[in-house]
């Protein structure tokens, strides 16, 4: 019998942290969640971290039955985000073990609930960072579910029924219809997977700050050429911006210019190059997750220019006041995007042929890929071939 999922209460980040004070507490609450959710009867095979070892192991668990508002998905691919490493290693102190990572999920619908009208079996779909929200606050009504105080993450979150959410390192998933997007036929499911996190993370602020209006002569700077940065370059070029890549690595110049067709490249450690680019950019999107100073980057902006931070360094960044004051510049932050915006982004990617540059790995290679990801040794996103012939699931 199908059960309706009511928007009773999804946990906030604070709630999740309180639930995860230790490995023991997290495990106890996981057991409790399983006890109070008897409709979790579907056997699933996946990969989970059981402790902060930096590795995952095969893990069998159960998902809820497909409710009237739910869609069941056979997972084909799941992108590997650096956030997965943070949760696996409990870097933020909020991990509830066992944790099944993965929030860049693509696959095919196998079942839909009675109240679902927008999807049907066989549809190509994706699930990103969010599994639930309150559905009733101002943010949810504006389709900004990612900013809802009661948003639940796709993994390591608390769903409406009190269960701990498990992510896409698994062979199937049950998602509420609100938190599902359609993947255009023009996009391959593997290379589209990272768009559900890396793609929307850069698309949302670029749209918000007018970077994608196609105004002639507008110039965008992208700090860092990794999983997020390379997609930001692709968006900028697709919408007619002059794109400059700003990097600490001289080896990235050839990639930026030849592979991604960036218009300029600036080595941020070269003071002469940085000065030559002073007051030349309208926008900068900063994708670097390491601690760094924003002062030199701000000096690249024109008067009234905008700098957007989308990464989360583990230590505070340096923000000197003079480049702000004397340039009337703005610094803001942004995290992922709402569901309406995510579908819009995916549709535009279909129209423009935008995908992530990926390295496909089998499920047997997840731990090797995680080790390489920790060293930033990837061009530019690992994607797990969950349903592939080499899969051990």
UniProtKB/TrEMBL annotation:
<protein>
    <recommendedName>
        <fullName>cinnamyl-alcohol dehydrogenase</fullName>
        <ecNumber>1.1.1.195</ecNumber>
    </recommendedName>
</protein>
<dbReference type="InterPro" id="IPR002328">
    <property type="entry name" value="ADH_Zn_CS"/>
</dbReference>
<feature type="region of interest" description="Disordered">
    <location>
        <begin position="1"/>
        <end position="24"/>
    </location>
</feature>
<dbReference type="InterPro" id="IPR047109">
    <property type="entry name" value="CAD-like"/>
</dbReference>
<keyword id="KW-0862">Zinc</keyword>
<keyword id="KW-0521">NADP</keyword>
<keyword id="KW-0560">Oxidoreductase</keyword>
<dbReference type="InterPro" id="IPR020843">
    <property type="entry name" value="ER"/>
</dbReference>
<dbReference type="InterPro" id="IPR011032">
    <property type="entry name" value="GroES-like_sf"/>
</dbReference>
<comment type="pathway">
    <text>Aromatic compound metabolism; phenylpropanoid biosynthesis.</text>
</comment>
<keyword id="KW-0438">Lignin biosynthesis</keyword>
<dbReference type="InterPro" id="IPR013154">
    <property type="entry name" value="ADH-like_N"/>
</dbReference>
<dbReference type="GO" id="GO:0045551">
    <property type="term" value="F:cinnamyl-alcohol dehydrogenase activity"/>
</dbReference>
<comment type="similarity">
    <text>Belongs to the zinc-containing alcohol dehydrogenase family.</text>
</comment>
<feature type="domain" description="Enoyl reductase (ER)">
    <location>
        <begin position="54"/>
        <end position="384"/>
    </location>
</feature>
<comment type="subunit">
    <text>Homodimer.</text>
</comment>
<dbReference type="Pfam" id="PF00107">
    <property type="entry name" value="ADH_zinc_N"/>
</dbReference>
<dbReference type="GO" id="GO:0008270">
    <property type="term" value="F:zinc ion binding"/>
</dbReference>
<dbReference type="GO" id="GO:0009809">
    <property type="term" value="P:lignin biosynthetic process"/>
</dbReference>
<dbReference type="InterPro" id="IPR013149">
    <property type="entry name" value="ADH-like_C"/>
</dbReference>
<feature type="compositionally biased region" description="Polar residues">
    <location>
        <begin position="1"/>
        <end position="17"/>
    </location>
</feature>
<dbReference type="InterPro" id="IPR036291">
    <property type="entry name" value="NAD(P)-bd_dom_sf"/>
</dbReference>
<dbReference type="Pfam" id="PF08240">
    <property type="entry name" value="ADH_N"/>
</dbReference>
<keyword id="KW-0479">Metal-binding</keyword>
